[in-house]
Design brief:
Length: 286
């Protein structure tokens, strides 16, 4: 049983998950905990099983017991090692900048890492940190973090190239935001519109949606639908889309997806329904 089977020559970091729109604004001391406050994580107790949770296999337990010269059984009634074993995280500048470091080649840090992996408030990876609302921290593999930063940088580069192409036109920026689902005023300034798009690009939670729209081959049809809704040529009720008379544009699927698909067919075939809606838009907006 070698050390390499259970210990790894790498470092993992526990990092805060900062969420936009919290109680305190960005940059406020209480945006994430308050300076000097501390949170502790211990081995959870499983009520259904009536015992502490297990984080070690039999082989792993044997290894760590020899390394630490400790009895690591979760069943001990007295002197239970796990009753005093805890990971204590204190908010300070180092935590906010670099995270709480765990050296997986060190037996104690390795156990801390294993304990943190099963906590309800800890995301198992940085990429999953927004998947559940209760995540407060995320475990970050340094290699994962580097790769993630590179991917986000590439995404932002593509999005900013798009912004560079449309920032000279308030109409194009307004149209993009409309298709995204926002409702900017037709009198919005260039700086305001650029700022709105910039926020979407910089937010890791929305950058993928930005790229999805930029690269959407059906973008023009979706913009056509927004224009038609504005002039009343298409009626939206909840998630369903209808013509003025009340008939769905796509009888089999009146949702946005089905409506986009049907109008794209109508446009390609120069169908009467598409032309009728197009004329209504042109007559009102000319």
């Amino acid at each position: 049983m070698s050390k390499s089977e259970f210990l790894e020559d790498k470092k993992v970091y526990l990092k805060p998950v900062l969420k936009p729109g919290g109680m305190n604004p960005k940059g406020h001391d209480g945006e994430f905990m308050y300076s000097g406050t501390e949170v502790s994580y211990v081995l959870p107790y499983n009520l259904k099983k009536g015992r502490l949770e297990t984080i070690l296999t039999k082989e792993e337990q044997d290894f760590f017991e020899k390394e630490l010269n400790e009895d690591l059984s979760i069943h001990n009634k007295v002197n239970n090692y796990w009753n005093t074993f805890a990971v204590r995280i204190r908010k300070d500048d180092r935590l906010m900048k670099d995270g709480y470091e765990l050296d997986l080649s060190d037996p104690i840090d390795n156990l801390r890492w294993r304990l943190l992996k099963i906590q309800a408030h800890v995301s198992p990876t940085w990429n999953e940190r927004y998947d559940r609302g209760e995540y407060v921290f995320a475990l970050v593999d340094q290699e994962e973090m580097t790769a993630t930063r590179a991917r986000i940088a590439d995404k932002r580069k593509e999005a900013y190239i798009f912004l560079g192409k449309v920032e000279g036109s308030t109409k194009k920026m307004i149209n993009f935001l409309r298709v995204y689902g926002k409702k900017p005023s037709n009198t919005a300034t260039v700086d305001f519109l650029k700022g709105e798009i910039d926020q979407l690009i910089e937010n890791p939670k929305t950058i993928d949606n930005v790229l999805k729209i930029i690269n959407d081959p059906l973008y023009e049809i979706k913009l056509f639908i927004e224009d038609a809704i504005e002039v009343g040529a298409i009626i939206r009720r909840g998630r369903k889309y209808y013509m003025q008379g009340g008939d769905p544009i796509n009888e089999n699927d009146p949702t946005l997806e089905g409506t986009v698909e049907q109008l794209n067919i109508y446009k390609r075939d120069t169908d009467d329904i598409y032309l009728r809606i197009d004329n209504q838009i042109k007559n009102i907006t000319k």
